[in-house]
Amino acid sequence: MSHGLAVALLACPVLAQANERRFTHTYESAVLPAGAWELEPWVTLRAGRSSFYSRFDYRLEYEVGVTDRLLTAFYLNWNRITQADPANQGQSVTEQNFKGLSWELKYKVLDPSADPLGLALYQEYTVNSDEFEWESKLILDKRIGDNLIAYNAVAEAEWGLSPGEREYAVTLENVLGATHLFTPAFAAGLELKNPNLKTRTSTGLASSALFFGPVASYARKNWWLALTVLRQLPALQRSEGRPDDSLVLDTREKLNVRLIGALRF
Questions:
Q1: Among 69, 75, 202, 222, which residue's CB has the most CB atoms within a 10 Å radius?
Q2: Whole-structure pTM value
Q3: Residues 6+ apart with CB under 8 A from 255
């Protein structure tokens, strides 16, 4: 094989438009070029609460580059939950729910290649028949050689819209990811997530949970995959509802496994 052909084959994975995701919870500042679009299926397994609980969250995302700095995306959201039946000991119940439509905007302010630090602003809205949610992110990232580090500051608010149930909850999150590119295609590293929950009835924070685990990703020219497995660590602040538990198990799970894929067009 000629030297030139070998170089071309090794470079093939990075001939993509350099915006494949290397994390599943931590966002990066890169956006799609104008006119490019991706179809991204998501699946997240959330398992293990104080009693039996297993939940799959599904999202189907259509993402398109509006300009070389701005992208927009639309999502379909649904889930399937199996949990212990409180009315029948030893039995479980399963339900499937459509969780509404989401609209995302992401604007790249600084480029991590051309500028000292990558910076992007993110906004997402979700509407369902019984709730409304908005989510804002400040996205920072930095490439240092073959290492990529990213941090997100996240604010998320949810309002219940059912008559007589005007509940709301606010979650402030710190999300950190670090990964190493072993080849242009394959990277592996770690993600850390710290969701802090405030509800209408809580006096301060209702809980401050902590998740940590490995992430791996693989990218080719027209597709990519990313997988993260997070385990819950002892809480930074135990849940108001279950103060004797070292983990937050009334609103969070022991295990979170997320897989995201994409086809680029």
A1: 75
A2: 0.89
A3: 45, 46, 47, 48, 229, 230, 231, 232
